[in-house]
Specification:
The structure is a homodimer of 167-residue chains. In chain A, 49% of the residues lie in helices and 2% in strands. With 167 residues, chain A is mainly alpha-helical. Chain A has a two-stranded antiparallel sheet. In chain A, a hairpin with a 5-residue loop joins β1 and β2. The longest helix of chain A has 33 residues. The two termini of chain A are 35 Å apart. At the A-B interface, α3, α4, α5 and α6 of A face α3, α4, α5 and α6 of B. The structure holds a DNA duplex (30 and 30 nucleotides).
DNA sequence: TTGCATCCGGTACCCGAGTACAGGCTTACC
DNA sequence: GGTAAGCCTGTACTCGGGTACCGGATGCAA
C-alpha cells in the first residue's frame, strides 16, 4: 500500500470535519463525550486533528440514526463492531428496533382513526360539543400511547447525563 | 335546579381530584401553572378545593392528549371553547394535527422499510458489513426524519419555560 | 508582530410532560 | 393537645440530541 494522499497535511481540523460530515463543530465534541467518536490526536497547542476516516464514521452514525437508533445504541453497535468479528448484534438490534417502530406506527394509526372520527363527526368543542353522536367521550377509553405524542419514560433504568463520558 | 349532592362537603381536595382523574397530585399543580386548570378556591389555610366539574375537565384534557394534541394546544382549545360560541377552531386544529400524524407515520414507514432491508440483507456491522449488496450505504441518502426518532426542533419561535404562567 | 479566525473546556439552555424532593404549614382524628 | 397524614411553594431533575455562550488560548497569514 502506498501512503494516503495528504489530507490537510496531518488530519482534519474540527471545522473541516464538521463541514465534510455536515454537522456542527459542537456536535463533534458532543459525540466525543458520548463515546461515538474516539478522542483524536491533538496539535501541540491542544487542537484536535481527526483522521480522514472520521468522515465515514460520522456518515455511518447519521445512517444509523436514520434507521431509528439512538446515539447510545449507535455507540454500542460501533463498539461491538470494533471489538469482535461480526456477530448477530446488529441484526438483533435491528429486529427489536423494527418491532419498536411497528408499535409506534400502530399507536399513531389509532390516533389517526380517532382524529378522523372527530373531524368527520364535526366536533366543535372539547367540553361542550354540539355534534350528534359525538365521538369525543369515546376517545377517553383508549390509553395514551407511549413514545410518540407523549414521551415514553418507562424502561429507563439508570440515571444518565448528557455530559457523561463513555464507559 | 336543585343543589348538587354534597361533594366532600365543599369541593375536592387535591388528592381526591387526582385519584378521581387518574393523575398525580403534582400533575394538577403543573396543569394549573400551564393554564389548563383554573386556580381553585382555597381553604382558609391555603389548601385547594376543586369543584366536581374539574374531574370532567381533566378527562377532556386526557382525551385531547390521546388525540395527539400538546398541552399548549389543549389549553388553547379549552380557552377558545370557553370564550366564544362554537367555531371551527377544533376542527381546523384537528385537520392540521391529522396531517402531522400522517407525516409522522410516513417517516416511520420509511424507517421501517430501510430497517427491514438491513435485516433481510443480513448486515452484520455498521462499519464493516460483510453482506453482499449491503443496503447500509444507501440508508445514508435519506434525510433524518423530524419528530419521531430525533426530536423535531424547528417551528419553535418563542422561548418558553415549563414553569410559565398562563398569558 | 499584529490581527483575526478558529479552537478550547465548561457550563447552561432548548423542546414536552411531567416527577422528585426539601422544608414548612394545615387539617383531621383521637 | 398530640400526632400523622396530607398539603403548600419552590426548585431541580428526567428522557435525547444537540445549541449557545463564555473567556481565554492557538494557528496562520500578511
Amino acid at each position: 500500500m502506498h501512503r494516503d494522499l495528504p489530507v490537510s497535511l496531518g488530519g482534519l481540523r474540527t471545522s473541516e470535519l464538521a463541514t465534510a460530515a455536515g454537522v456542527k463543530t459542537q456536535t463533534l465534541r458532543y459525540y466525543e463525550r458520548r463515546g461515538l467518536l474516539a478522542e483524536p490526536v491533538r496539535t501541540p497547542g491542544g487542537h484536535r486533528l481527526y483522521p480522514a476516516e472520521a468522515v465515514i464514521l460520522l456518515r455511518v452514525i447519521k445512517a444509523a440514526q436514520r434507521l431509528g437508533f439512538t446515539l447510545d445504541e449507535v455507540a454500542e453497535l460501533l463498539d461491538s463492531g470494533r471489538r469482535c468479528h461480526p456477530t448477530g448484534a446488529l441484526r438483533e438490534r435491528a429486529v427489536v428496533k423494527l418491532d419498536e417502530i411497528n408499535t409506534r406506527i400502530e399507536h399513531l394509526e389509532t390516533i389517526r382513526t380517532a382524529l378522523a372520527g372527530v373531524i368527520e363527526a364535526g366536533c366543535d368543542s372539547l367540553t361542550h360539543c354540539t355534534c350528534p353522536e359525538c365521538p369525543l367521550p369515546f376517545v377517553a377509553i383508549a390509553p395514551i400511547p407511549p413514545g410518540d405524542v407523549n414521551l415514553d419514560v418507562d424502561a429507563i433504568p439508570s440515571r444518565r447525563t448528557a455530559t457523561r463520558r463513555r464507559s
